[in-house]
Amino acid sequence: xxxxxxxxxxxxxxxxxxxxxxxxxxxxxxxxxxxxxxxxxxxxxxxxxxxxxxxxxxxxxxxxxxxxxxxxxxxxxxxxxxxxxxxxxxxxxxxxxxxxxxxxxxxxxxxxxxxxxxxxxxxxxxxxxxxxxxxxxxxxxxxxxxxxxxxxxxxxxxxxxxxxxxxxxxxxxxxxxxxxxx
Length: 182
Ligand code: IMP
Ligand code: MG
Description:
The protein has 182 residues and is an alpha/beta fold. The chain has three helices and ten strands. It has a single domain (23-156), classed as Rossmann fold (3-Layer(aba) Sandwich), CATH 3.40.50. It has helices at residues 19-36, 54-61, 113-123; strands spanning 5-8, 11-17, 45-50, 69-79, 86-91, 101-109, 129-137, 150-154, 160-161, 177-180. The longest helix has 18 residues, at 19-36. It is globular.
């Protein structure tokens, strides 16, 4: 049963996108990917960005009808000694991507900073092409020019949890998407 509001740590959230709407959006993306990837010479690779995209990846892949590989990667961030401040690196990407079709799976694209970093890291491994696929997108927050190939639902510039998305690690397990109210 869906709770209308949930409290996580110190903050209150209310239902924003219903489970059925997210399910329909995920299925719609899968159908588009199925159509687009029908004639691939080699099995495409889905790259799921942890932690947030774990649930989206699981939901999406149940509807994928062609042979594919699935791999998980994580971004670690730490304070570097260089003047640039935060340095990130990819953890767990040990797959050969040269010549492959890569479909990057994200939970949400906000400013696009993370996405740009991911795409340039993946591009350095010489894949045939990179498709960008995200469950949620905040168009008003997006500051980059990279075109997004598959977008589930475009949302307002709200802070949201559920379906893998967290607030300080809580809220990932909700089936509906909740937005911060106070
Ligand atoms: P970006 O680099 O600004 O595009 O942010 C992307 C990352 O920030 C996502 O992969 C999420 O981990 C996190 N993020 C952005 N917006 C939200 C939100 O509304 N709720 C929870 N996490 C978010
Ligand atoms: Mg994420």
